[in-house]
């Protein structure tokens, strides 16, 4: 099956942490299903002089090369146990982690990274490497977080944020394609707010009809908003007729409702916009909130034209 979006390999970051190893197993399951090679990438600058260690710079550099080789070999051996049929490649780079991962991901279908690295202090604080990769990647980025004892995709639904935008369309198609691939349901989630639902006519109505104009039939509005979601999802139901769908139209915070749905799902897929020169500072409040707070794998979709 051709991955959506197209790519010729999957990249996973390796840093020796338990989270990194779990992310590699999760990535191996996708590489196996998509029949794509899995590239294991460890990228970090060589350490500088260490006066407290009785080694010459050359000896220190050799020790560091040996460490990277052992780390990648151990991860590759584990991947072969989890998914014996997939093709693997190990890549060691001396660039900063985010730079090395992005370089290895040229032409990739997806990048997978653990939400916390080897030096992380707090489980809920996302590392700078993950943020930089999500911000700059030209393909979907999966930020893996979950139970390291059970990292592989299971039978729970795939959750996707749907708002009708072109980028959301790409994320939605990806969710349906992966739901079909793993034979699991998909849960499209769309939220709406009071002001958006009632519309701009309310102030004028108050002037004409008085306070009674604020009597709002929320049930009717909720049905109308649910209809909007059904319209958004309809083309994907037609394209992927074998996928079970549970639409969720909710009033309130997008972050809150997406996280609630993820509590019952196995991963969440959201789209994100590109940006200009301030892109790194403007990743988007919804995406940033989800990146920091999601309890399970979060896939941030960015299409080739975004």
Task: Give the SSE map.
Blueprint (H helix, E strand, L loop, with lengths): L9 E4 L4 H17 L3 E6 L13 H26 L5 E6 L3 H8 L5 E5 L13 H9 L4 E4 L13 E4 L4 H17 L3 E7 L1 H5 L3 H8 L8 H22 L8 E4 L2 H10 L3 E5 L13 H9 L4 E4 L5
Parallel strand pairs: 1-2, 1-4, 2-3, 4-5, 6-7, 6-9, 7-8, 9-10
Antiparallel strand pairs: 5-10
Helix pairs in contact: 1-2, 3-4, 5-8, 9-10
Question: Can you describe what's shown?
Answer:
By secondary structure, this protein is α/β, with parallel strands linked by helices. It has two domains: 149 residues, Rossmann fold, CATH 3.40.50.620; 152 residues, Rossmann fold. The protein is built from ten helices and ten strands. Strands 3-2-1-4-5-10-9-6-7-8 form a ten-stranded mixed sheet, sandwiched between helices. Helix 1 packs across helix 2, helix 5 packs across helix 8 and helix 9 packs parallel to helix 10. The chain starts with 9 loop residues before the first strand and ends in a 5-residue tail after the last strand.
